[in-house]
TrEMBL record:
Keywords: Membrane, Transmembrane, Transmembrane helix
InterPro entries xref list: DUF7982
Taxonomy of the source species: Archaea, Methanobacteriati, Methanobacteriota, Thermococci, Thermococcales
Protein name: DUF7982 domain-containing protein
Residue intervals passing through the bilayer: 7-24, 30-47
All residue ranges annotated as the DUF7982 domain in the record: 10-230
């Protein structure tokens, strides 16, 4: 039970007791004091907690970005889902490549920090858009918490640190990652309701993006998003391992 509920209930109880005493003794001062106590308890009950404010602020920041990226993806007619690329020489912080076609190829040798639209390629299947992951700053927080880089660690390390940091920031209740040979099953319980997840397969919010980018960095593999699904227990992500940078050179 929150502190505000305890304080509000106590004030209401005291207010009712004083109000009854005032009525029984025909004492206007006690009646007014009792009414004031009940009113004050109602005011305290309506005060929004800091936890609510944090969630509300997160939503107000996230929703405009997600709406913008949804329009961006629709206007470019990008058919493929996101591929999370681990850091390497061309992309020191990694990146997210959204292929133009569902059946795609990635020539990572052509990518760099200045690339946005990759069109100057031999085949249409290599075309797409390169974005800086929205979750890159959260990923830095994970590594600050660990006091070392996630590079070449493990999915279990990502699960542990992402869960701890996102809980501390009031962004998610839990993070669960299951290694399934050539793929990952990720379940994230955000602290707020995700209105829609279809756009997340191409551009995920910073919370989900940070976990997927963390997996790419920890395993040193390209991670392809197969699906996002809204479940009773959270957001379930299925992602496939595509191999390391050298395999895509």
């Amino acid at each position: 039970m929150e502190l505000k509920h305890i304080v509000s209930g106590s004030l209401a109880g005291i207010g009712v007791a004083i109000l009854l005493y005032g009525f029984l003794n025909v004492n206007t001062s006690y009646i007014n004091l009792g009414i004031a106590g009940i009113f004050l308890s109602a005011v305290i009950l309506t005060i929004k907690s800091s936890e609510y404010i944090k969630k509300d602020a997160a939503l107000r920041i996230l929703i405009p970005y997600m709406n913008l990226f949804e329009k961006f993806v629709d206007n470019l007619s990008l058919e493929g889902n996101a591929v999370y690329i681990p850091p390497y020489q061309n992309l020191p912080e990694g990146g997210v490549f959204i292929p133009l076609k569902e059946n795609f190829e990635i020539d990572v040798g052509r990518l760099n920090e200045k690339t946005v639209f990759l069109t100057d390629v031999p085949k249409e299947s290599q075309m797409g858009t390169l974005l800086t992951p929205l979750g890159v700053e959260l990923l830095k927080k994970y590594e600050e918490h660990l006091e070392y880089s996630l590079s070449n660690t493990s999915y279990a390390e990502v699960e542990s640190v992402a869960g701890a940091v996102l809980r501390a920031l009031g962004l998610a209740k839990s993070v669960y990652i299951e290694d399934q040979e050539n793929s990952f099953r990720v379940v994230i319980q955000p602290e707020f309701k995700c209105k829609k997840v279809d756009v997340c397969e191409k551009v995920a919010c910073p919370i989900c993006s940070s976990v997927l980018l963390g997996l790419a960095k920890a395993t040193n593999q390209l991670i392809y998003v197969e699906s996002f699904e809204k479940k009773d227990y959270g957001i379930e992500i299925k992602a496939r391992k595509l191999g390391g940078i050298r395999e895509w050179m």
